[in-house]
Amino acid sequence: MNELTKAEEQIMQYIWKLEKAFLKDVVEQFPEPKPAYTTISTVVRVLVKKGFLNFESFGKIRQYYATVSKEQYFKKHFKNVIGNFFSGSSSKFALFFTENEDLKLSELEEIKNLIEEKIETLKEQND
């Protein structure tokens, strides 16, 4: 799966939010000053070519939808970040995250609880 440019990612964010959208719907999502309609149309065509979007035709009008979920893209992108910046080590990322973020005690406890729940689930699956 290819990485998205900033412009592509912004359009994907809007389409993930809308689920299905005509080009005019995507244009309406942009804050003022909006990019040119033709610019957005070009980026959408690139996203179709890359396989991130597909469409359904209604005469000359196309309704676009994502072929890759936000979760799928994030998971792949996140793996690349961990691979590129933390030598593939999730624990190095966690250490970096906890040392470089101003996390409240309650946030750290919540993260700890989520990790403990995941550990229990994995233990149950392996039994």
Folded structure, characterized:
The chain is mostly helical. It contains six helices and three strands, in the order αβααββααα. It has helices at residues 6-18, 23-29, 37-50, 70-85, 90-100, 105-126; strands at residues 20-22, 53-58, 61-66. The protein has a three-stranded antiparallel sheet. Helix 1 (6-18) crosses helix 3 (37-50) and helix 2 (23-29) crosses helix 3.
Please outline what is shown here.
The protein has 127 residues and is mainly alpha-helical. The chain has helices at 6-18, 23-29, 37-50, 70-85, 90-100, 105-126; strands at residues 20-22, 53-58, 61-66.
Mean pLDDT across the residues is: 91
Strand/helix succession: HEHHEEHHH
As a percent range, the share of strand residues is 5-15%
Annotation field: number of helices: 6
C-alpha Rg, in Å?
Answer: 19 Å
Please state the structural category: mainly alpha
Low-pLDDT runs of 5+ residues are: none
Query: How are the strands of the largest sheet arranged?
Result: 1-3-2
The number of E-state strands comes to 3
Q: Into which percent range does the helicity of residues fall?
A: 55-70%
**Which outline best applies?**
elongated
The termini sit apart by: 34 Å
Largest sheet: 3 strands, antiparallel
Q: Can you lay out the helices and strands and say which pair or pack?
A:
Elements: H1 6-18, E1 20-22, H2 23-29, H3 37-50, E2 53-58, E3 61-66, H4 70-85, H5 90-100, H6 105-126
Short descriptors:
127 residues; elongated; 6 helices; mainly alpha
